[in-house]
UniProtKB/TrEMBL annotation:
Similarity annotation: Belongs to the sulfotransferase 3 family.
Gene Ontology molecular function terms on file: heparan sulfate 2-sulfotransferase activity
Alphabetical list of InterPro entries matching this protein: Heparan_SO4_2-O-STrfase, P-loop_NTPase, Sulfotransferase
Protein name in UniProt: Heparan sulfate 2-O-sulfotransferase 1
Organism: Clupea harengus
Keyword hit for Transmembrane: yes
Gene Ontology cellular-component terms listed: Golgi membrane
Topology of the protein relative to the lipid bilayer: Single-pass type II membrane protein
Pfam families: Sulfotransfer_2
Ranges in coiled-coil conformation: 24-51
Subcellular location: Golgi apparatus membrane
Keywords attached to this entry: Coiled coil, Disulfide bond, Glycoprotein, Golgi apparatus, Membrane, Signal-anchor, Transferase, Transmembrane, Transmembrane helix
Length: 356
């Protein structure tokens, strides 16, 4: 460079220096662009790797997760309330279990006590969660709701149930204790021989038709808390409502049992595929009917409806009915006098990032 300065005129020397400076700036700019490109490439590669990991995890999770209605590891608990058409419904489960390959287990408690001891609660939770040979399965019995989360269980069972107008349920139970039903007509019932009608019981303020006898559906849904069984407890009513909404997949009503069965078949086909047709055409679905049952008079109904206990039980029943009708309104439609289940009514769009 020094020799060039000697040989070149000053004017050309200046141009040479400027050209050299421009060349160096261009080279530095290209180097910076290469550095930026490398950084972007590394970032793109990193994002791609992260995306691949996320997609792999999502695919693994999809393989591990099976819809409740199709899984072979699902357990349903039907803690059936007495005289709500529970036998009619369980007969359908018995008829379907061989065809649909699931188990049905009847929970028979001593003296029909709906409250389990603490040690029996632990045993029952262990049975339901770890008895693999009985999965998939439906457990049913006259037992109060049991919160499995209290026992540290992650995969909780699916709860279902049916409720009935409280006075109609009590009248049915009153005559059932005296005359039985057409399911097992030869079986002697606890009050057999007592010919007193329900109306006569109400007019004489008998114990078997007292308002306190209405207090049953609330504690069955409330569960294994002492306050649940305190007759007339507002706390028990609110807890029963909470459990119905948060812990039960579906709660039907006796008066609309066919709709309840239809919705279960749509939601849980693994268990209830064919249940609707079986209910409509089978003999067992209408098998159990209380005999010698006489509808109560308006005076008897009015007298019971004057009690605070009836008001609370009826409030719970109306709450359950409204929830059931809400679910049904979004699940089925009526056409030509027949109900049918709606097909899938949601879809996905604008899924990003797009895959080439």
């Amino acid at each position: 460079m020094g020799l060039l300065r000697i040989m070149m005129p000053p004017k050309f020397q200046l141009l040479a220096v400027m050209a050299f400076g421009i060349a160096m700036m261009f080279i530095e700019n290209q180097i910076q662009k290469l550095e930026d490109s490398r950084t972007k490439l590394e970032l793109t590669i990193a994002r791609h790797e992260v995306r691949e990991v996320e997609q792999r995890h999502m695919q693994e999770a999809a393989r591990d997760w099976t819809p409740p209605g199709e899984s072979d590891d699902v357990v349903i608990i039907y803690n059936r309330v007495p005289k709500t058409a529970s036998t009619s419904f369980t007969n359908i489960a018995y008829d379907l279990c061989s065809k649909n390959h699931f188990h049905v287990l009847h929970i028979n408690t001593t003296k029909n006590n709906p409250v389990m001891s603490l040690q029996d609660q632990v045993r029952f939770v262990r049975n339901v969660t770890s008895w693999k040979e009985m999965k998939p399965g439906i457990y049913h019995g006259h037992v109060a709701f049991l919160d499995f989360s209290k026992f540290g269980v992650k995969a909780k069972p699916i709860y279902i149930n049916v409720v009935r107008d409280p006075i109609e349920r009590l009248v049915s139970y009153y005559y059932f204790l005296r005359f039985g039903d057409d399911y097992r007509p030869g079986l002697r019932r606890r009050k057999q021989g007592d010919k007193k009608t329900f109306d006569e019981c109400v007019s004489s303020a008998g114990s078997d038709c007292a308002p306190e006898k209405l207090w049953l559906q609330i504690p069955f849904f409330c569960g294994h808390y002492s306050e649940c069984w305190n007759v007339g407890s507002r706390w028990a009513l609110e807890q029963a409502k909470y459990n119905l909404v948060n812990e039960y997949l579906l709660v039907g009503v006796t008066e609309e049992l066919e709709d309840f069965i239809m919705m279960l078949e749509a939601a849980l086909p693994r268990f209830f595929k064919g249940a609707t047709d079986l209910y409509r055409t089978g003999k067992k679905s209408h098998l159990r009917k209380t005999t010698e049952k006489k509808p109560p008079t308006k005076d008897s109904i009015t007298k019971l409806q004057g009690s605070e206990i009836w008001k609370m039980e009826n409030e719970f029943y109306e709450f359950a009915l409204e929830q059931f009708q809400f679910v049904r309104a979004h699940a089925v439609r009526e056409k030509d006098g027949e109900l049918y289940v709606l097909a899938q009514n949601y879809f996905y769009e604008k899924i990003y990032p797009k895959v080439n």
